[in-house]
Amino acid sequence: ARESDEFHLQVCVLRMSSVTVLFTSHNRIEKTRECVYSLDDTGLDMRYFVVDDGCTDGTAEMLQRFAAEKQRKIEIIEGNGNLYWAGGMRAGMEALLAKEDRTDYLLMVNDDVVFEDRAVLRMIETERSDPGSCICGATCDQEGRRTHGGSVYEMGKVSRRRLYIDDPDLWCEVADMNAFLMPFEVFRKTGGFDPHYSHSMADYDYCFMLKGRGVSILMTPYYVGRCEGNDIDGTWRDVSLPRMERVRIKESSKGLPAREWFYFLKKNFGLKKAIWHSITPYLRILARL
Description:
The protein is 40% helix and 22% strand. By secondary structure, it is of the alpha/beta class. The termini are far apart.
């Protein structure tokens, strides 16, 4: 009975925490709806900052109805439809930093994640076990296979090794921010994403910024939700596509734009590695790899 009382007291303390949820959305109303309703089933004090990047499918109206139903505060920031993920999240982070509202945690999510029951409570509990750390929530697909989470870089290499929930050491160097919880004061001191990125790489770059400030990142030893993996079909890595089409896709905002990729490499790995690893994608395309 005593253990049960202590458990309920702990849950009550965790539920006193306030969480600001930040995500960006573009015309996938059904996924966004499923995400927010699964996320909000926690009993926490939650509020929402959403970047509506030019949605034309009624996403903003759906979110307003959701906020009214759940009695949540929500602020919707309008984008121009061309912010992409990094640009949208950066706009949301800047707007949030300009506010004076106090909150305990910032939770950055992708709105294609369907969260497990009490996932946010569990992430907060994980942070409380190592106060001041950021928590990377691992996700899996419908078959239970890991899709997103944390990674570490091999010594002296640009290639990274994924972490899995049953690994003995879950401290990360970089993390996919599909579900990323950070103490709000850490966010306030670190600031927003580097403006050099339009879509990808901003989350990994941000993790290096956190590391430079002495902030640790810990991946959860459990899956916080379901999120499908990124399919290579139709991307610049798709070997079935003609070479020039792969180059075109690579240089698009959702690919691996040369200028952004070089900037990321030089900033985080040095000039020599930046030069070499800026060339290797083209060599892969030329060799049909």
